[in-house]
C-alpha cells in the first residue's frame, strides 16, 4: 500500500471522519486485518478563520513538505475550503494532491448529474477552487446560493457545525437552501463542507447529495491501493 499524507484540523470533527472512512474502506476491500499507512498533520483551525491568504498558503506548503519528508507519496486535504491552496502548493511539491473536485466529478458522472447545487463555507461558494475544476475539467455546472444566503450558510457552518452542534433547526435550514438551488435547476447537491454530511443523511432530501468527505476518502483509498 502507498503512504498517504493527510492535512486535517479544519475542523478536527471532519478529520476524524476522513481517518475513519479511509480505514473502513480499506478494510472492506482488503480485509479488516489490514489498515493503511497514513501520516496525519492536524493544524489549528484558527489559521483558516483568520483568513490571511499568504499565511494559509505558506502553512500548507510547509506542512506538505513535512509530510513528504516523512514518506507521503500523495497528500489529501481533509476539508473542502482549504483546497483554495491547491494552485499555490501543488506546483511546488513532488507528489500529487488528491483534489476534492475530481472526486465530486467522478461521483456526479456515475449518477449522470450535470447541474450541482453547492453548499459550503463562504470561500467555497464564492471562489472557484471547486466550481472551477468542475466546469473546465469535467463540464459540470455549479449553482451557488445568493450572497445573503451564502452568509447565512457560512454562519451555520462556522458557528454551529464546526463546533459539533447538529440540530433539527440546522437541518431544516440546510434543506430550505437546497430547495432554492433545486428551483434554479440543480439536479443534485454538493455537501461542500465536511460537516454537512454529518448533519444530513441521503434520506433527508429528494435529490442526490454528494458527500464530499466520502467520495474524497474513496479517492484516497484508490490511490493507497493503486486502483
Which strand order do you get reading across the main beta sheet? 5-4-6-7
Mean pLDDT: 93
**Biggest sheet overview:** 4 strands, parallel
Q: Classify the fold: give the CATH topology of the largest domain.
A: Rossmann fold
Overall geometric form: globular
Give the percentage of residues in beta strands.
5-15%
- The percent of residues in helical segments reads 40-55%
Q: What order do the SSEs take from the amino end to the carboxyl end, as H and E?
A: EHEHHEHHEHHEHHEHEH
Number of domains: 2
Low-pLDDT stretches: none
What does the radius of gyration come to? 17 Å
CATH architecture title of the largest domain? 3-Layer(aba) Sandwich
Distance between the termini: 10 Å
Number of helices: 11
CATH class of the largest domain: Alpha Beta
Count of beta strands: 7
Structural class determined from secondary elements? alpha/beta
Task: Looking at this protein, list some descriptive labels.
227 residues; alpha/beta; Rossmann fold; 2 domains; four-stranded parallel beta sheet; three-stranded parallel beta sheet; 7 strands; globular
Could you please describe the fold and organization of this structure?
This protein is of the alpha/beta class. It has 2 domains: 4-100 and 215-225, 3-Layer(aba) Sandwich (Rossmann fold), CATH 3.40.50; 101-211, Rossmann fold. 50% of the residues lie in helices and 14% in strands. The protein is built from 11 helices and 7 strands. It has a 4-stranded parallel beta sheet, sandwiched between helices. Helix 5 (100-110) packs across helix 11. The protein is globular, with a radius of gyration of 17 Å. The termini are close together. The model has no long low-confidence stretch (mean pLDDT 93).
Amino acid at each position: 500500500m502507498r503512504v498517504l499524507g493527510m492535512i486535517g484540523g479544519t475542523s478536527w470533527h471532519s478529520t476524524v471522519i476522513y481517518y475513519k472512512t479511509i480505514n473502513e474502506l480499506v478494510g472492506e476491500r482488503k480485509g479488516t486485518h489490514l489498515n493503511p499507512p497514513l501520516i496525519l498533520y492536524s493544524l489549528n483551525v484558527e489559521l483558516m478563520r483568520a483568513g490571511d491568504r499568504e499565511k494559509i498558503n505558506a502553512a500548507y506548503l510547509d506542512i506538505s513538505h513535512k509530510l513528504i519528508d516523512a514518506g507521503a507519496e500523495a497528500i489529501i486535504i481533509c476539508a473542502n475550503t482549504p483546497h483554495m491552496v491547491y494552485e499555490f502548493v501543488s506546483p511546488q511539491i513532488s507528489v500529487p494532491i488528491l483534489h476534492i473536485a475530481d472526486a465530486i466529478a467522478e461521483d456526479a458522472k456515475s449518477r449522470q448529474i450535470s447541474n450541482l447545487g453547492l453548499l459550503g463555507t463562504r470561500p467555497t461558494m464564492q471562489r472557484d477552487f471547486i466550481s472551477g475544476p468542475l466546469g473546465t475539467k469535467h463540464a459540470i455546472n455549479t449553482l451557488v446560493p445568493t450572497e445573503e444566503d451564502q452568509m447565512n450558510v457560512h454562519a451555520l457552518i462556522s458557528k454551529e457545525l464546526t463546533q459539533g452542534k447538529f440540530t433539527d433547526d440546522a437541518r431544516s435550514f440546510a434543506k430550505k437552501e437546497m430547495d432554492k438551488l433545486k428551483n434554479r435547476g440543480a439536479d443534485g447537491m454538493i455537501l461542500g463542507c465536511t460537516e454537512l454530511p454529518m448533519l444530513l443523511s441521503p434520506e433527508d432530501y429528494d435529490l442526490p447529495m454528494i458527500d464530499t468527505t466520502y467520495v474524497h476518502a474513496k479517492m484516497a483509498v484508490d490511490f493507497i491501493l493503486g486502483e
